[in-house]
Specification:
single chain, two-stranded antiparallel sheet, Elongation Factor Tu (Ef-tu), domain 3, 2 domains, six-stranded antiparallel beta barrel, 3 helices, alpha+beta, 8 strands, 35% helix
């Protein structure tokens, strides 16, 4: 469905370009037909958006049901305990097959966090901050958890996973600091987020300059 949505949006953009050109050339009949095409495409986009919303709602409830069914067997097998986290929304990014390793504030693209409407009240006053921490579940991590990692750009050094930002962790949580551009109802428009499209969000926290900016923090193994 993501493919259909993206394809439909591209189709609308191309139709609008053609419509503008037809108006400039005075092609009234072409303008009439293209206006109809754009109108129909926008209606199709609305229907796809509603379908995606239904899929997200089903996926969330289905995941909880499967986890509840397998929890006891899983804990017995791996000898560890699970704690429940709630998905409060999803991240929308242009990244469907690959994503940058770190956030790039000036990256092109549409980045937003769509919060479940029942949590919208929790966004009150967040727009007074310039930046926020976004904590999300790495549901598309390609590899199983490892206690060792070879960070990119580290010159081949191998370190413990907790001294790295590898996505292949015992608890696969991602953390990004993003710039808050604006908040409209339950939608936070942000700078680049280094996450795949539709990644589930588990929490958002404000970034305080006097608390979170630590001078002299250093760069650990990256210093070399």
């Amino acid at each position: 469905m993501d493919y259909w949505m993206n394809h439909n949006e591209e189709h609308i953009k191309e139709s609008v370009k053609g419509l503008k050109k037809a108006k400039e050339m005075g092609l009234k009949e072409v303008v009439h037909h293209l206006e109809h095409v754009v109108e129909l495409s926008e209606k199709v986009g609305d229907h796809i958006a509603k379908a995606l919303k239904s899929v997200d709602a089903y996926a969330g409830s289905h995941v909880h049901a499967v986890e509840a069914e397998n929890e006891e067997a899983h804990q017995a097998l791996h000898n560890h305990t699970h704690y429940q986290l709630h998905r409060i929304g999803i991240i929308r990014t242009p990244y469907t097959h690959s994503a940058p390793r770190q956030t790039q504030e000036d990256a092109d693209g549409d980045f937003r966090i769509i919060i479940d409407p029942r949590y919208e009240e929790g966004l009150d006053q967040l727009d007074r901050f310039t930046y926020a921490f976004v904590i999300f579940y790495l549901n598309r991590s390609l590899h199983s958890a490892s206690l060792r990692a070879t960070p990119p750009g580290g010159g081949g050094i191998t370190v413990g996973v907790f001294a790295s930002r590898s996505p292949n962790r015992p608890s696969p949580l991602g953390l990004s600091i993003v710039k808050i551009k604006k908040i409209e109802a339950n939608i936070i428009v942000t700078s680049c987020i280094d996450a795949f499209d539709r990644t589930p969000v588990v929490d958002i926290k404000p970034y305080f300059e006097h608390l979170d900016c630590k001078s002299g923090a250093g760069n650990g193994w990256a210093e070399k």
